[in-house]
Amino acid sequence: MTRDFILPDLGEGLTEAELVAWLVQPGDEVVIDQPVVELESAKSVVQLPTPFAGVVASLGGEVGQVLHAGQVLLSLEPVGGAAPSAPTTSGTAPDAAASTDAPSTAESSPTAAPAEPGIVVAESAPADESGAVLIGYGTRASTPTVRSSNAPSRFGRGRGAPGGPARKDSGPTTATRPGAGAASTATLELDPDRRSPVVSPIVRRLAREHGFDASRLRGSGPQHLVVRRDVESYIARRDPAAGAPTVDAGPARSAGPEASAPRVASSAGERRVPLDRVQKAAAAQYQRSRREIPDATVWMDVDATGLFAARRDLQAVTGESFGVTALVARFCVAALLRHPSLNAAFDAEREEIVYHDGVHLGMAAQTPRGLVVPVVHDAGRMSLRALRDAIGERSEQASSGRFPPSALTGGTFTLNNYGTLGVDGSAAIINHPQAAMLGIGRIIERPWVVDGALAVRRVTELTVSFDHRVCDGAEAAAFLTDVARSIEHPVSMLADL
């Protein structure tokens, strides 16, 4: 019995993702909750585990293809059943679906359709499946999986594990696959009866702008996929005077759809670069925050000399290292428990203030994919040591831009240490739908009055941006002075521990 792994909602309404790499290929045997695919959403690159055990029968798309929630990621056959004779992909793209006469997944699979994307409910849960599972979280903790040496990837196929023999490919490689050569070998003729797969909307648009249907070409990509170079080659052959195409093709890829961000032709003296998926999501978030939240900002300079002294003492006693961010995060969490209006949100539709029971601390982080806010859940229940470790884990994930889906959802307050960027302060944009954000500027030595005399102290600037619908300036100032007091006199926290 074939079972289909359905692409779920990846969190916070993210309903589409680009295929970065397959971690398995047709014919591979997988176990429950084994990561099988890497997907790039608008916020991170994630590995999704399969809810079923079995043998991979088919993959649900090509590397570089954008899939939507509810589409089939891959199909699995029972172990010991008939294994696929050659790697195939199920036609998830509209053109690919039209190019095959195979019955639809719903007709060929006896498993009932899921009630919603990512939830698969069987009449009875056998021992070889997870049962009712939100795919992407799994029933057991999953560990990152190394890509199969022959599994399709946006970065090409691997050559096997170091020191070990390369796996035998289950199908022709890109170099030998029929129709996978350079564009010069492709059939640059339109055939009204041909229906080639066309995944990229850029390729479709480019063909439309020049008056033809890209699917009528015989593509040079995998499974005769029509890629950008095919369309441009046909345009150049049909109309040599057309000049340069409207979209710069960039480096040609020999495998998979064209996934890189195109550069649109520009006028003299300017350069235009389209936003990628992450930048589009961030832009929408910033616009919504500025449009909906009447924000205000308060700030103050704080003497952090006592914080560094307490940090040295703590490390001397425990033999462990504690970063400044972890210490300030702990002070922040403690202050939020005393000032819950800053750990809240505003429900505009119902005109209600929503107070959160727990503190789920977002940590603004600059990653290779741009600015994201991973979340440390239940930070209000953590000790300093536990909070330090959780922040360290998020920092490691930020260095690669790869987070589990749950890491980017559910934040109730954001801490932004922009001092690492070398600035003193910022009127930060609040992370909608949260009500406030605390910013930490750089910590530098400055002249400071201590007991009526000038002294050199380590000083930082704290900034709180807040939603004026949720709390007023007095409450925001009380929260800010609470955090400042803990930084200046860390021992003052002992009374509340």
From TrEMBL:
One Gene Ontology CC term in the entry: cytoplasm
Superkingdom assignment: Bacteria
Keyword entries, A-Z: Acyltransferase, Lipoyl, Pyruvate, Transferase
PROSITE patterns: BIOTINYL_LIPOYL, LIPOYL, PSBD
rRNA processing among keywords: no
Pfam families in the cross-refs: 2-oxoacid_dh, Biotin_lipoyl, E3_binding
Catalytic activity, EC: 2.3.1.-
Keyword Transferase tagged: yes
SUPFAM superfamilies the UniProt entry points to: CoA-dependent acyltransferases, Peripheral subunit-binding domain of 2-oxo acid dehydrogenase complex, Single hybrid motif
Biased composition annotated in UniProt, kind: Low complexity: 171-187
Ranges of residues in domain Peripheral subunit-binding (PSBD): 198-235
Record field: compositional bias (Polar residues): 141-150
InterPro entries for the chain: 2-oxoA_DH_lipoyl-BS, 2-oxoacid_DH_actylTfrase, 2-oxoacid_DH_E2_comp, Biotin_lipoyl, CAT-like_dom_sf, E3-bd_dom_sf, PSBD, Single_hybrid_motif
Enzyme class: transferase
Cofactor annotation: (R)-lipoate
One Gene Ontology MF term: acetyltransferase activity
Region feature (Disordered): 81-115, 141-195, 238-272
Domain Lipoyl-binding, residue spans: 2-77
Family: Belongs to the 2-oxoacid dehydrogenase family.
Protein name (Swiss-Prot/TrEMBL): Dihydrolipoamide acetyltransferase component of pyruvate dehydrogenase complex
Organism: Agromyces terreus
